[in-house]
Q: What sequence folds into this?
């Protein structure tokens, strides 16, 4: 198992304690393509942040590639985020005073790569995603779909084992959403990257092989979706 | 492969300059605080120095251990003489002082005359004259632009020669030529000019040296028909002698000779330069203290301002820092980024502050003419920069701590 969660609890405490995750048990194998669905406020993002070591949890155990992720030092956590995990956000989260290529190469900067090497690799990823001519543009000069592809390139440049995406199509129209999902599917098929997508769009979930439903802070049913028939709208369309 | 803290290479440099240059507004805002604090401090220090040297011009050339003695009406009756009696200093007082007060190195007379005018061709200027001996140079060092000062032979042979002050030279010789050898008329007598003294001293009683015509005392004596009387006696103490200690003894010698009550302080006017210099010194020490207080206050206010702006900037950059953390930056990476950005800003803004204040002070120096020193020295500038660096480091603590505490989840916060 690449990812193993045992009885994960998470409580936010802003004056009034809010018990969001109430005992999550979850296992994800290397190379899986999984989506997490659930109502707004059900704790999807919270769970994904814990998986990405962006946030910590209160109770339970999280094993990542055989290593217990608990009470890590900031340095260790940063190391795992940098080496193992790529993160894609709904709002893209590109640094707006850096060009597309500079955004993509930033994770390599923190790995200590030289400028030339970084630039070379980043350009290769941008080319792969059809963004070569946009390399020197700033994020505010790019469309939503282009921004998200830049963000995915940034997530992938360190060659991570896991790609976590929190509503990656949330800010995109249906056509661009399909493009982005095709891109992710392709990555999963050819590069064998383990991908976990949080979404509340059934069309998006339908692109994945396994749909995990989360409800009231625990895992509800898990639908196997190898046939991609989960969406009533048919395959390869995403209704907005 | 991990980068060490504060490792500085071309990549770090680019990362930092990019962050600063591409966020001009906040860089300018922060930089201006640093610039202004340093500029104000240095400008104040330079300004204080300039004012000091301006005032010091009044003392220029004057021996600091000298006193000037002049006669005044008595204010106390003594030995059958009524109060209100006029008396005069005499040449014999000079010899007497020399013998009875051996601590004095030079004792020399001066015969002043006010309200004169000097004329050459169609040029005319009001002036005052003083007759002195050649050894007067020890009391007030002249700075000769042309020619020479009076010598012993001039005095002995009663030569009708004169040394003129700067303003008289400018008025009578507007072309700025060397006037030596030319004749000017003072009162009804013609004198040959032998030198121009451009010292700026304002000390001598009755007006500045710029407006004075200096004559051999023997010539002046005949002119005024002053007999044995002298207007003033100037005296200089030997090396290491404290003139304030001698003042009483000098008064005593003169009082006894002229039948003046030894307690009659007003009858014998004694101008002690040492006291004047001490007063000036204290004054400047006070002014300097004030300048440093105000300057450091400005710098401190600047540092606090910078600290505040940096706090706001860090808050503004929360998402950016969160993103950096989410893609693998350690808190140390973030810290070194913030600190190095601060250092780069300080260096650029600080040196512009120094350059700007140096330029402005230079301008003042040009405006204020020669011999006035506004310019700060290299050491002062470096000390100020060091002080600034220290304050900057202190100012950066709170913002840097806040930046380090930003969590990767903060990247998810709404922009
Ligand atoms: N930092 C936080 N502090 C306090 N409460 C939080 C915090 N983050 C999330 N919450 C709360 O926890 C609950 C779960 O949030 P979460 O973002 O995980 O939901 P979600 O399933 O991603 O919802 P959505 O589909 O709207 O994105 C929500 O009620 C939210 O208000
Ligand atoms: Mg969410």
A:
């Amino acid at each position: 198992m690449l990812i193993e969660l045992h009885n994960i609890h998470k409580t936010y405490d802003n004056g009034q304690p809010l018990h969001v995750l109430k005992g999550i048990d979850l296992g994800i194998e290397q190379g899986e393509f999984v989506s997490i669905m659930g109502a707004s406020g059900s704790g999807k993002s919270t769970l994904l942040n814990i998986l990405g070591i962006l946030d910590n949890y209160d109770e339970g155990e999280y094993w990542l590639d055989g290593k217990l992720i608990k009470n890590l030092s900031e340095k260790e956590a940063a190391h795992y985020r940098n080496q193992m995990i790529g993160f894609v956000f709904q709002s893209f989260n590109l640094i707006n005073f850096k060009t597309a290529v500079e955004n993509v190469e930033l994770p390599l900067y923190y790995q200590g790569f030289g400028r030339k090497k970084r630039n070379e690799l980043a350009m290769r990823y941008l080319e792969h995603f059809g963004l070569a001519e946009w390399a020197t543009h700033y994020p505010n000069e790019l469309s939503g779909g282009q921004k998200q592809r830049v963000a995915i390139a940034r997530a992938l440049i360190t060659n991570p084992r896991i790609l976590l995406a929190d509503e990656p199509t949330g800010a995109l129209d249906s056509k661009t959403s399909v493009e982005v999902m095709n891109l992710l599917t392709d990555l999963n098929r050819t590069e064998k990257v383990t991908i976990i997508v949080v979404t509340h769009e059934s069309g998006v979930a339908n692109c994945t092989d396994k749909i995990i439903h989360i409800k009231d802070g625990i895992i509800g049913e898990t639908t196997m979706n190898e046939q991609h028939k989960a969406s009533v709208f048919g395959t390869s369309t995403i209704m907005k | 492969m991990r980068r060490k803290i504060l490792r500085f290479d071309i990549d770090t440099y680019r990362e930092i300059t990019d962050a600063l240059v591409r966020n001009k507004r906040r860089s300018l805002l922060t930089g201006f605080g640093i610039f202004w604090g340093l500029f104000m401090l240095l400008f104040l220090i330079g300004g204080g120095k300039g004012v000091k040297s301006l005032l010091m011009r009044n003392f220029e050339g004057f021996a600091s251990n000298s006193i000037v003695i002049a006669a005044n009406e008595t204010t106390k009756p003594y030995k059958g003489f009524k109060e209100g009696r006029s008396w005069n200093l005499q040449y014999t007082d000079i010899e007497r002082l020399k013998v009875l007060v051996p601590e004095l190195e030079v004792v020399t007379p001066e015969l002043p005359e006010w309200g004169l005018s000097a004329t050459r061709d169609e040029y005319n200027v009001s002036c005052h004259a003083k007759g002195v001996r050649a050894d007067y140079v020890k009391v007030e060092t002249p700075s000769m632009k042309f020619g020479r000062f009076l010598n012993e032979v001039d005095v002995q042979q009663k030569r009708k020669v004169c040394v003129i002050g700067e303003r008289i030279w400018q008025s009578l010789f507007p072309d700025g030529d060397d006037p030596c050898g030319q004749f000017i008329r003072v009162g009804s007598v013609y004198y040959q000019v032998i030198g121009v003294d451009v010292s700026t001293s304002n000390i001598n009683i009755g007006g500045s040296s710029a407006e004075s015509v200096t004559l051999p005392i023997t010539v002046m004596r005949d002119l005024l028909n002053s007999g044995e009387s002298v207007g003033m006696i100037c005296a200089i103490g030997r090396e290491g002698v404290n003139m304030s200690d001698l003042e009483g003894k000098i008064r005593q010698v003169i009082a006894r000779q002229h039948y003046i009550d030894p307690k009659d302080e007003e009858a014998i006017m004694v101008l002690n330069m040492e006291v004047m210099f001490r007063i000036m010194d204290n004054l400047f020490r006070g002014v300097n203290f004030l300048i440093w207080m105000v300057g450091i206050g400005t710098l401190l206010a600047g540092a606090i301002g910078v600290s505040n702006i940096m706090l706001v900037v860090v808050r503004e950059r929360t998402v950016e820092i969160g993103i950096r953390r989410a893609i693998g930056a350690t808190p140390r990476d973030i810290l070194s980024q913030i600190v190095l950005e601060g250092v780069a800003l300080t260096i650029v803004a600080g040196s512009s502050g120094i350059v700007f204040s140096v330029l402005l002070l230079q301008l003042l120096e040009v405006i204020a003419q020669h011999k006035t020193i506004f310019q700060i020295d290299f050491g002062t500038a470096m000390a100020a920069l060091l002080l600034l660096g220290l304050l900057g480091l202190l100012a950066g603590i709170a913002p840097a701590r806040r930046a380090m505490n930003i969590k990767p989840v903060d990247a998810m916060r709404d922009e």
